[in-house]
Structure formats: C-alpha cells, structure tokens
Write a structure and sequence with these properties.
- The protein contains two helices and five strands; from the N terminus they run αβββαββ.
- With about 110 residues, the chain is an alpha+beta fold.
- The chain has a five-stranded antiparallel sheet, covered by helices on one side.
- Strand 2 and strand 3 form a beta hairpin.
- It binds adenosine monophosphate and zinc ion.
- Adenosine monophosphate (AMP) binds next to loops.
Length: about 110
C-alpha cells in the first residue's frame, strides 16, 4: 500500500532500526518502546490485521511466528522471558493498519493483558 507507514518501512523508504529480516518478514525496533526490548514484526506483504491472516501465503504466516522467536534470541531475551502481542481493531487501539506483532521483554512486564 502506497501510504501505509509499515509498507514504506518494508520498502526502505522510511528508515528503521532493523533487528531481523527474511524474504517474508521484517522486524524493527518500535519507535516508542514500552519495554527495554520492544520490536515490531511485520509481514512484507500488506494485510491490515490478524483478521486478514488468510490473505498471506502459509509460509509467511509461519515466518511471522518464527521471526518473533528469532527476535527474542537475537535481542537476548529468549531465556529471561518475553511477550508477543498483536493489537487488532478499535478496542485494542490498533494504530497502524498493517499487521504487526509486538515482541516485548528485557525487564519484568506488567501482568495485565488489558
Ligand atoms: P499498534 O498501536 O499496536 O498499532 O502499534 C503500532 C506501533 O508502531 C506503535 O507501538 C508505534 O510506536 C510503532 N511505530 C509507529 N511508527 C513507527 C516507526 N516509524 N518506526 C517504528 N515503530 C513505529
Ligand atoms: Zn502496509
């Protein structure tokens, strides 16, 4: 999508602090971190949210989850612990309408999921 900020990051038109990349996905540091480690994992192909997961090829769907695990390993939080989360829609305050998974860790996280 031309004007989607995460598509623009995936195309390299907007700089990002890349943590991991493969043919399917890109992971980069969140610009407004909510934890010592806060990385966003996106599919390079635009879909708006998890509701549209089926529009992605199966290998891309799998790559998203595997990338989260790889981000945890690369940032050194695989053993200390981390959380993945994807905000979907208005009640979750999704602010970027391109599917993304947050990887959060590097310190004790709030137990609240809401
Ligand atoms: P959400 O609120 O779940 O839609 O998450 C969107 C996330 O994208 C927020 O945590 C923002 O801080 C982050 N974000 C927005 N623009 C950028 C950017 N240019 N680079 C990195 N992260 C961004
Ligand atoms: Zn997009």
């Amino acid at each position: 999508m031309d004007d989607c900020i995460f598509c623009r990051i995936a195309r390299g038109e907007i700089p990002s602090a890349k943590v991991y990349e493969d043919e399917h996905v890109l992971a980069f540091k969140d610009i407004n971190p909510l934890a010592p480690v806060h990385v966003v994992v996106i599919p390079k192909q635009h879909v708006a949210s998890l509701n549209e997961l089926d529009a992605l090829p199966a290998d891309t769907q799998l790559a998203l989850l595997r990338a989260c695990r790889e981000v945890a390993r690369l940032t050194g939080i695989a053993d200390s612990g981390y959380r993945i989360a994807s905000n979907c829609g208005a009640d979750a305050s999704q602010s970027v309408q391109h599917l993304h998974i947050h990887v959060l860790g590097g310190g004790k996280l709030s137990v609240s999921m809401a």
